Each structure stands twice: as C-alpha cells, then as structure tokens.
Amino acid sequence: MTSAPxxxxxxxxxxxxxxxxxxxxxxxxxxxxxxxxxGMTEAMMRHGADAVxxxxxxDRLTQTANELSATTGRICIAAQADVxxxxxxxxxxxxxxxxxxxxxxVICGAAGNFLAPISGLSENAFxxxxxxxxxxxxxxxxxxxxxxxxxxxSYIHVSATLHYKATPYQAHVSSAKAAVDALSAVxxxxxxxxxxxxxxxxxGPIGSTEGMQRLSSIAEGGVSRLPLGRVGDIQDVANATVFxxxxxxxxxxxxxxxxxxxxxxxxxxx
Length: 270
Ligand code: HXC
Description:
By secondary structure, this protein is of the alpha/beta class. It has a single domain (20-269), classed as NAD(P)-binding Rossmann-like Domain (Rossmann fold). It is built from eight helices and seven strands, in the order βαβαβαβαβαβααβα. Helix 3 (86-100) packs parallel to helix 4 and helix 4 (123-151) runs parallel beside helix 5. The longest helix has 29 residues, at 123-151. It is globular, with a radius of gyration of 18 Å. Pfam families: adh_short_C2. This is 2,4-dienoyl-CoA reductase [(3E)-enoyl-CoA-producing]. Its EC number is 1.3.1.124.
C-alpha cells in the first residue's frame, strides 16, 4: 500500500506567535495595495501593528486599507506615491508621521514585471523595472531611514529567486532584484550600529498572485512533484515577515530568507 503524498500544512502566524507582539508599532509598506505585500501587511496588523500602504493607484489602495482595517481591527491608511518619485515618497512619509508619529518597520515591496527576452526589451522597458524595483527601494530607504533609526526598527525587502540562476525573459527583474539584495546587505552593515536591521524575503512562485499568473509555468499536476506538495501561499511569506520583524529575529540581519519550499534547488530537475 502506498501512502498519500505529503502536502505541507498552511498555518496562520497567529497560530504560532502572540497576537499583540507588534502592538504600538507602525508599518510603512510600498506595494501594499495588493498581492504579497497586502498579505504581509495584514499579518503584521493581525499582530497589533497599524500600517500605511503605499502605491500608485489610490482607489485600489483605499479599498485595501479599508478592508485591512475592517478585518484586523487596526488602522490602515493609504498614501499614494510612485516609488520612482522621491518627492511623492517624502509626502507619504510625512503623512505617516502626521498620523502615527513614527515608523518602526518598512517593507520595500513595490515591483514591476513582465516576460520579455533581452532582444525584445527596449531600453525604456529595462529602465522602467530597474527604476521601480531598485531605485524605488533606494528611494524608500532614503525617505524612511531617519525615522527607522529613531525607532531602532527594521526593513524587509521583497526580492525573488530568479537571479540565483539564469531565468530566461527575466533579465530586467533579475538585474533589479540582485541589486535589491545588495542594497539590503549594505544597509544591514551600515545601519546595524544604529540598531536597524535589514533582511530580504525571496518568495518563489506564490499561488494567486499577479506575478504567478503572469510568469509561472508550473503545470497542473506538476505540483505533486514539489518537495512540500504544494506551491507557496501569500500566508507563507506573511509568516516569514512576522518572524523577521519580531524580536525573535533580533540577531538576524543582512540575510535572505527564501520562501519557496526548496523549489529553487529543484530547478535543474524540472
Ligand atoms: C516588453 C514591455 C512589456 C512587455 C511593458 N513594456 N510591458 N516590453 N514586453 N510585456 C515596456 C513598454 O513598452 C515601455 O517601453 C516600458 O516597458 C514601460 O512601460 P509602461 O507601461 O510605460 O510603464 P509603467 O506604466 O510604469 O508600467 C510598469 C510595468 C507594469 C512594469 C511595465 O507592468 C507594471 O507596473 N506592473 C506592476 C504590477 C506587476 O507587474 N506586478 C507583478 C510583480 S511580480 P517603451 O520602449 O515602449 O517605451 C514580481 C516578482 C516576480 O516582481 C517573481 C515571480 C516568480
């Protein structure tokens, strides 16, 4: 008799961590209007944080902020900004300080992506993704660092695993995310003496996200061959976020936490 294939159980962070660990803390999250960063924000709020979500589309941000406030009982406000525009980010930070008086945690998550070979990638297309992902991360750090130093807070940068090996049609995002990883590591070393931590979360393919819909080629039925028997869920990334921002991770900085169920290690065999 053969046993049923193993499928990893999906847990909510509140099943493991206390619900008030981030009470009184303020999160500033770019890209928080949807997808993975929305899930990361929701998890932080479920543990007591209030949040500001930042993005380009004010209607979507406002809808998400209202939804997150209603589902978590915490305060979430929307701040419209394109991370490519330092002035807009500065205004978003000012709005945060006016509302909450401080920033403890920053998620640099705003990103852009599409599939294109280098031969089909215009200079502007490459530049656009570099500017959203890499320059946007730099701009977010610059806009927030004084406040994060004051609170001895912490950064999480949302990266990817694409650049660990060559991923066709992803030269622009791979280049941008490699630079994000480098920025985070330098930030950790430079800001450690100020009590600031900086880490990267690198999600693999995550189900029900725009990135997965646009990019993934994991076929139906291929899922059972994955090491943990399922693709990643936004909650998996959210759980890692709660851990990395928590005091349980107070000696973890300058690191990358890959949340991909070991899929990257399997790439050669797919
Ligand atoms: C080739 C393309 C293209 C495509 C756009 N461009 N889409 N080139 N193939 N499919 C080119 C345009 O022609 C233009 O170049 C340049 O890129 C800029 O396009 P705009 O539309 O003017 O830019 P903008 O409005 O700023 O939009 C940015 C974007 C867009 C990146 C192009 O897709 C976006 O904002 N996406 C955000 C949402 C998103 O992608 N989320 C998923 C992230 S997933 P020219 O030369 O014509 O002027 C992720 C993780 C990946 O990041 C990990 C997965 C495993």
